[in-house]
Amino acid sequence: MAGIHIGLSGYSYKPWQGPDRFYPPEIKQSGFLRYYSSRYDTVELDGVWYRFPSEAAVQAWIEQTPPGFVFCPKAHREITHYKRLSPDSLPTVDFMLQRLAPLAATQKLGPILLQLPPNLRQHLDRLSQFLAALSTDHRWAVEFRHESWHTKETEDVLRRHHVAWAAVETDDRPAEHRDTADFLYARLRRSEYNEPDLEKWAGRFSEARQHGKDCFVYCKHEDEGSPWTWADHLLKSTQ
């Protein structure tokens, strides 16, 4: 049966610690991931966008999480923002996958998110050539942040390469729901969510699971606020 994996975008946030917060006051920051993985079975690795993890860091991620836990990294900015999916970015993709290989070997590597810069306009040939060069041993999702990409032609490219269109909801823009892969990738980025909002999302995830699609869902990671309450609600509604 397909699974619904719900978590947060990152875990190592000191402001999340304290009375009535996510992390109990007595836990050291070095123990955050172990505690986090006792509550959720997945996390989006926002930090990989900034820097490649060391081999030691990847090994620590594996050791501090239980079997079945899934890491979903955001692809490094050199790939998406500096080299902007050009052929020159492919060696960086290979290096990133090499660093993440121990996660894949232990079945802890989930989809890799390619978050495109907001000023990158639609370029279907570049996107298609880039996706064609990616390893099919991994799942990939793309977040488009310029509206010129919001076309059927973009959908067709992703569907041809079995890549998911990331459904991303923000305060400024509703999510684009495009069915392009055998899994669903969603990012809930609004400042606030109420119960009806979350129930609508939960229904979408439950329906996708019924159609055999795994779901990977991440609530926003800002230091302030309490995104874990939204994740907890989604978990209860999709059990």
Would you write up a description of this structure?
The protein is α/β, with parallel strands linked by helices and 239 residues long. Helix content is 34%, strand content 16%. The protein has eight helices and nine strands. Strands 3-2-1-9-8-7 form a six-stranded parallel sheet, with helices on one face. The chain is globular, with a radius of gyration of 17 Å. The two termini are 13 Å apart. The model has no long low-confidence stretch (mean pLDDT 96).
Poorly predicted residue ranges: none
What is the residue-averaged pLDDT? 96
Order of helices and strands: EHEHEHHEHEHEEEHEH
Helicity, as a percent range: 25-40%
Rg of Cα set: 17 Å
Could you list some keywords that capture this structure?
single chain, 239 residues, alpha/beta, six-stranded parallel beta sheet, three-stranded parallel beta sheet, 34% helix
Summarize the structure.
This protein has 239 residues and is of the alpha/beta class. It has helices at 32-36, 55-63, 77-82, 90-105, 124-132, 152-160, 195-210, 227-238, and strands spanning 4-9, 42-45, 70-73, 112-115, 140-143, 164-165, 167-169, 183-188, 214-219. Helix 2 links the parallel strand 2 and strand 3.
